[in-house]
Amino acid sequence: MATFTKRSFGDLIRRQRRQLNLTQEELSCRIKTSVPYVGHLEAEKRHPSEKVVIKLADVLVLDRRELFFLANPATKALMSQGPAAEGTSAWATFSSDSNLRKVYKITDQELEILSKLALMGDVRSSRDFIFVLNTIRLALGR
Q: Is 2 inside a domain boundary?
């Protein structure tokens, strides 16, 4: 597996693709996307889905988790958050975090659905809500 330094997502996939002697066309065939899309990823003009990150990691022999975090730096910060402070519910912390809502582009409708999740049981942290949200979005093809 390749190790990561302070590179950008696009720079890393371009360098790794070249190191493996792959053209953009060959890479696009292997990850089942278009050649222009690979170019846009390398130029950081597009943001990859989780599925594309996994395919890229597998084809380019990169660590899936680290590549995902490089493509989604806000997620790494969120994952480093611990559980909600004693006496503060995870829902209260999550729903009042306007920056988090902005970063993940959480709609009012999605927030309403997640509020119902909060009523179902004890959710430990904001990252759990993000996980559920991403799962719902993936299931709906968003």
A: no
Q: Are residues 1 and 16 in contact, defined by beta-carbon separation less than 8 angstroms? A: no
Q: Are residues 67 and 115 in the same domain?
A: no
- What is the C-alpha separation between 131 and 114, in angstroms, rounded? 11
Cβ atoms 92, 127 nearer than 8 A:
no
Domain count, the chain: 2
Token pair for residue 61? 């022999």
Q: How far apart are CA 55 and CA 131, in angstroms?
A: 20
Higher pLDDT: 121 or 11? It is: 11
> Which domain covers residue 30, as residue numbers?
9-71
Task: List, for residues 48-68, the tens digit of each pLDDT value.
Answer: 999 999 999 999 999 988 898
Same domain, 18 and 47: yes
pLDDT band at 6 (very low <50, low <70, confident <90, very high): low
